[in-house]
Amino acid sequence: MTIPGTTIPARRDKDIPGVGFLNGIFAATSSLKLSQIREMTGLDASALQNWVKRGWVSPPINRGYNIDQVARILIINMLRSAFQLEQIAFLLSYVNGSVYDRSDDIIPESQLYEYICLLVNRCALSGKIDDEMLDQCIFDVTQHYVEIIPGARHRLSVALKIIILADRSILIKQLAEQLLEDLRSQ
Fold first, then answer.
1. Helices marked H in 18-151 — which ranges?
2. What are the structural domain ranges in the chain?
């Protein structure tokens, strides 16, 4: 298990893998360079630059990416195995509108990423998940979220549900691929 959207292993002895991860990094710096993001995610520079060019990630400022830009990159990277990039961009715009306009955001992407990490952890600890349990987990994790505009809580909950179900589907696909590979090696 890795911290969502990264190649960094999550420590199984910690309660919440990934939570505080970005805050810890950005406590020492105000931005990350492209090379640092590449190291953390395993993405190549051309992929990241393409995401910026297509408007899926806002352009770096003075060649640096702030905490919300990095969170968005990690979320996109996390979901790439489940969705097409255009679908991911649509989902993120459903939550926060235009990447170039912060005034239409219902939540900072860094906070969205933290919610995702909390939910991924809860799902991993529970072992199984059903619709009602997932809805309850989302409600619990977002209970302190303050709705900025009417309907924002619902939009956030729907997006989180899609993201967590996609994450679960990625894990199931990986398990199936491993089982298939095991068959080949017999």
1. 21-26, 34-41, 45-53, 67-79, 85-96, 109-126, 131-141
2. 21-184
Length of the chain: 186
Tokens standing for residue 154 = 């619902």
Torsion, Cα of 119, 94, 109, 9 (10° steps): 40
Task: Say how far apart CA 142 and CA 162 lie, in whole Å.
Answer: 15
CATH architecture for residues 21-184: Orthogonal Bundle (1.10)
For 17-44, give the DSSP string: TTTTHHHHHHTS-S-EEHHHHHHHH---
Q: How does pLDDT run across 28-70, given as a tens digit for each residue? A: 888 999 999 999 999 999 999 999 999 999 999 999 999 999 9
Residue 185, both tokens: 């090696």
